[in-house]
Specification:
Elements (H helix, E strand, L loop, with lengths): L12 H7 L3 E6 L2 H4 L1 H16 L3 E6 L2 H11 L5 E2 L2 E2 L3 H25 L4 E5 L6 E5 L14 E7 L2 H6 L4 E5 L1 E4 L4 E4 L1 H12 L3 E6 L14 E3 H9 L7 H13 L4 E6 L5 H7 L6 E4 L4
Parallel strand pairs: 1-2, 1-11, 2-8, 5-8, 6-9, 7-10, 11-13, 12-14
Antiparallel strand pairs: 3-4, 6-7, 9-10, 13-14
Helix pairs in contact: 3-5, 4-5, 7-9, 8-9
C-alpha cells in the first residue's frame, strides 16, 4: 500500500452544505498519479464531490509519463532551473502524452466511479491563452523553449460543462502567435481557479505541506505570514512556486488554497470534508 495513512470516507453534512454548488479546482500529480491504488481513490473522491453537488475541476500534470516516452524515443531531457526545456520535438511528445493517455486515463477512472468526466486541454475553447516564459529576471533571460506562462484564462468552456460534467484539463496553452505552449500544472490550476473564482484551490504534492522551522506541519497559514516566510527563506526550493501560486490565487478571488499530501488515501476528501484537514491551508485571514 503506497498511502501514508488510511481512512474511512469522511462525510460531513455541514461541509456538504457549505460547498454545494461551489467550484473546487484540484491540481493532480505526483505519487497520487503514479500508484494505481491512489489513482482509483482519487477518482472516487472526485466522483463523490460531484455526487454531493460540488463542481470539481481537475488540472493534471504528467512529468514522469512524459519522461518515460521521451526515454523510449531516445529524446534527451534538458533541464534548466528545475524546468524541462521544451523544444518543438519535445512539445510533440508533451501534447501527445498529456492530451492523450494521461488525460483519457483520468477521465476513464472518474467515469468508472459513476461521475461524468470530459477531457480537455488548455487549447480547447481557447481556455488558456499563453505567452512564452522568459524567466523571472528579464535582464538575465533563459530560453526554455516552448514553455509558456498563462496570460489569460477564458473559462467559458469549463462553465458550460461543469454543471453536468467533471472537466479534466491538460496544462497546454496557445499563444496569440498560434504556437502551443507547455505550462506548469500548478500555475495552470491557479490561473483557472482564479478565473472561476473557485471556493478552493487544492494542490496535491508528495510532502505533508508547509513545515515550520522545527519540522512541524503548519496546518493553517495566513497569506501575510506566508509572504514573510518566503522573504526570510523559510519557504524555498520546490515549495516556493506552490506558495506563490496559492498567494496569487488568493489575491485574485479564490476563497482558500491548500497544499496537501497526495500520498494519503482520500486526501482530497479529508481536506474538504473535515475541519482539521490534512495539509496546509493558505488563507487571507489570520488562522
Amino acid at each position: 500500500m503506497t498511502g501514508v495513512q488510511t481512512c474511512a470516507l469522511p462525510i460531513s453534512l455541514p461541509h456538504i452544505r457549505r460547498f454545494w454548488g461551489r467550484t473546487v479546482v484540484i491540481k493532480y500529480g505526483g505519487a497520487a498519479m503514479a500508484a494505481q491504488d491512489l489513482r482509483d481513490l482519487f477518482a472516487q473522491d472526485i466522483a463523490l464531490m460531484k455526487f454531493v453537488g460540488m463542481h470539481p475541476v481537475v488540472v493534471h500534470g504528467g512529468g514522469p509519463q512524459i519522461k518515460a516516452v521521451m526515454d523510449k524515443l531516445g529524446i534527451e531531457t534538458e533541464m534548466k532551473d528545475g524546468m524541462r526545456v521544451t523544444t518543438p520535438e519535445t512539445l510533440e511528445v508533451v501534447e501527445m502524452v498529456l492530451g492523450g493517455p494521461v488525460n483519457s486515463g483520468i477521465v476513464q477512472l472518474i467515469n468508472r466511479h459513476g461521475a461524468k468526466a470530459v477531457g480537455l486541454t488548455g487549447k480547447d475553447g481557447s481556455l488558456i491563452e499563453a505567452r512564452k516564459y522568459v524567466g523571472d529576471d528579464p535582464k538575465n533571460s533563459v530560453d526554455y523553449g516552448m514553455v509558456g506562462e498563462v496570460e489569460h484564462v477564458h473559462p467559458e468552456v469549463i462553465e458550460a460543462l461543469s454543471g453536468k460534467f467533471v472537466p479534466v484539463i491538460a496544462p497546454l496553452g496557445v499563444g496569440k502567435d498560434g504556437h502551443s505552449y507547455n505550462i506548469n500544472a500548478d500555475l495552470a490550476a491557479g490561473s483557472i481557479a482564479s478565473a472561476l473564482k473557485a471556493a478552493k484551490l487544492i494542490l496535491l504534492t508528495d510532502v505533508e505541506g508547509v513545515q515550520s522551522a522545527d519540522g512541524q506541519l503548519i496546518h493553517s497559514l495566513a497569506a501575510d505570514e506566508a509572504k514573510k516566510m518566503v522573504a526570510n527563506g523559510s519557504i524555498a526550493a520546490g515549495m516556493l512556486p506552490k506558495i506563490q501560486c496559492c498567494l496569487s490565487a488568493l489575491e485574485k478571488g479564490v476563497g482558500k488554497t491548500h497544499i496537501i499530501d497526495g500520498r494519503v488515501e482520500h486526501s482530497v476528501l479529508l481536506e474538504v470534508f473535515t475541519d482539521e484537514g490534512i495539509g496546509t491551508e493558505i488563507i487571507n485571514e489570520t488562522p
